[in-house]
Target: Cation/acetate symporter ActP
Amino acid sequence: MSDFLEPRFLAMSLFMLFIAACLFLAMWVSPDLRSGDGFFREGKQLGTVPTGLAVASEVMPTAAVLYLLGTVALSGVDGVILLLCAAASPVLMRRWLAGRLPAARGRTFGEMVTRHLPHGPAKRWVGAACLVAVVPLLIGQLQPLSHAAQLIGLSDPFSRRLVVVLAGGLILACAAIGAARGATMHQIGTAASFLLVAPVMAVMVLLRFDGDIGALLETAERQQGGTGAYLGIGGLFGGGIAGHLDLIAYASCVLLGAAFLPHIVVRLAGAPDARSARKAAGVGAAALCFLVTTAVFLGFGIAALVGREELAQEGPFGGVNLALLATALDGSETGDVGKLMFFIMCSIFLTILASASVLLLSGSASIVHDLGRGGGAEVQPDARRDGGAVRARLAMVGLGVFSILIAALTIDVSPQFWLVLAYTETVSTLLPLLVFSLGKRSIPAAAIKYCVLVTTVINLVLIVFSPLVSGTTHAVFPYADWSMWPLTSPSILSVPTGFLICWAFTRRARADKDAARGGLVVPEQSGKSNDVRTQVR
Model:
């Protein structure tokens, strides 16, 4: 009987109850199982604050909680730069595109980009690009489950893979049952939990150093080697021109990718008007800026309070460094579950659940609506609604099973590989398509095809021959070396290529259209653009 009263057993029992509560919430808010369209969107408009919190939660898991804390802990200032880019990304979204998104309504990113084109190859090209961005990000979200298993004493590879499969199956079940409404509820819960837990942990870190930020920074630098590079530039990718270019390229990916992912764009496009979209993006930006401010202290706290060997095992993008900090603040050993560690475990699971759920929804929506052979953005007649719901769930299950298996097989692969692949595809392919599709002139089908094809090939080829895949300690193949591209991210080449392709084809299509009509375009006068067309007789 005394074994059942041990703190570790009680904590794990409460954690299982928490998981059961997440499943119950998904069942409680589950939409009509017969409606395929209600599977991918909530059905009614949320308020500005709930939508903003959901947006912050969608950006937060990949940009501010699970990975970038590790960069602050091990690389210092370089990690702070990435965190600031993550905080600035929704600000840029609000000022740049949020106001124009409600005019491009659609269930998927592909429907928004190709709304002026007939359903066909162009839409399928966009759907394929969305999967290239969403699937790696989904795999990267599931990987921390294997590292969390190590914290509770399961260190052998089989047990870690089993945890990924079992926990991933629970997440897939929650996503399939709760659909868009359940994912949104979990996202709001994630944002609320970290808005509560993160400042508390930041205060606890500062209290360990009597509120002296200078002492915190000095201890963090000393724990990470005391060479002076920790509080300078080059701690993540090294010094020199190549290291600085790599930092600029990766920071640009975070800045232009964190808040411009397909599922975030589709959520803001569902706002009733431009003002509501801007206000929701503003709430998300404010919440994320607050969390990033506390995350900076947490990152330096991890560097100062967690052993250097433990951080080195997790790598520069370790997904459970926050749990290691909770263990240090609790004063417990690895494998023990203290009070703070219990809340962090719940928050991390809820974060993975919310993020993976919305990524599963986004990927399966692209499969059903973009890659499928169905047409229009509106709901099909009632006779086809049951089939739509079945296809939606089958697509989600297939995508989820594939991602869970890949995550279980790649438990030792650095999450940086998946993040670079996802963010680079977003900023080099999806962002140019979105920008030009929201312009005054509709983007031609040829621009969509060649932008997706060329930039995706550039990204995949350069990543295969980059230090991410071979030649470094945390590469996919650490004991081989065929790297020829010196930078971690290929975005410095692929992003200009994507925008240039879209610009060239859009301009050519406009010129061909004007020539076919026999028009003559008059330059701008008095701040307005007027097209005067003379009919040739």
